[in-house]
Specification:
There is one protein chain. The chain is α/β, with parallel strands linked by helices. The protein has one domain: Rossmann fold. The chain has a six-stranded mixed sheet with strand order 6-7-8-3-9-10, with helices on both faces. A four-stranded antiparallel sheet has the order 2-1-4-5. The protein starts with 5 loop residues before the first strand and ends in a 7-residue tail after the last helix. It binds adenosine-5'-triphosphate. The site of adenosine-5'-triphosphate has 11 residues, from α1. One of its GO terms (cellular component) is plasma membrane. GO terms for molecular function: ATP binding; ATP hydrolysis activity. Keywords: ATP-binding, Nucleotide-binding, Transport. Pfam families: ABC_tran, BCA_ABC_TP_C.
Length: 256
Amino acid sequence: MTESLLTATKLHKNFGGLPAVNQVSLTVAPGSITGLIGPNGAGKTTLFNLLAGSLRPDSGQVVFQNQPITHLPPHRVAQRGLVRTFQVARVFSRLSVLDNVLLAAPEQLGEQVWPLWFQAQRVAQQERQLRNTAMEILDSVGLAAKAQDYAGALSGGQRKLLEMARALMTRPQLILLDEPAAGVNPTLINQICDCIQRWHQAGLTFLIIEHNMDVIMSLCEQVWVLAAGKNLAVGTPTEIQTNPTVLTAYLGTGEE
Ligand SMILES: Nc1ncnc2c1ncn2[C@@H]1O[C@H](COP(=O)(O)OP(=O)(O)OP(=O)(O)O)[C@@H](O)[C@H]1O
């Protein structure tokens, strides 16, 4: 049996009596880049919300690193090493790019009153370390030159890179990326893919929702397919590309 970093078992979520996610199961192998695809409304984002704690399932379980996380709130899930980004990147527009990344750092001593009073030097040293780490991460996603710019001045694609940088700053094991290539120009899509591959080589695991099949097929080792809230198929990119059920339900619709 393959070892699993994340296991969702029979997750179920109704909205207004209708199932958005209907008894869905999924596994993510450690060190993998795993894809999650499906037509519009298939339940992909709802599933992400259930995995990352933004939504509570009506039933089913989520296990991460062999620990149940089903009913933990998002910040507790993030503390365990599982973070997500959003379809429309969420950044603080009026803060600098660097401050956006710094805000994502866990356990900052400066946020606690006592250390601030009694351990000023330690706080200053930690802040220097955090700034260095944040700059290294910004460099790795290609945004170092924009560190002092307002986040609001970034393009949509650059915001996605910034969101990824913020996720990386939490020192995760697994990042859930919600449509990293949506609305992004081809040059920046390549930059985002390079960035994912570099962090993957450094040991990070990714689960990626994406409508851009070239991105999914070039990055992912395994692809899960949802349709109408249910598991439809799972396999390698090649298996998925040639699976007639998938072609009918998804690729055959011409939706990208
Ligand atoms: N908060 C909500 N309240 C009611 N219905 C919702 C809510 N969120 C999602 N839905 C419904 O659940 C279903 C699944 O939506 P979801 O956004 O998870 O699909 P998706 O696969 O991510 O779609 P897309 O590819 O278009 O982003 C859809 O029918 C959607 O309208």
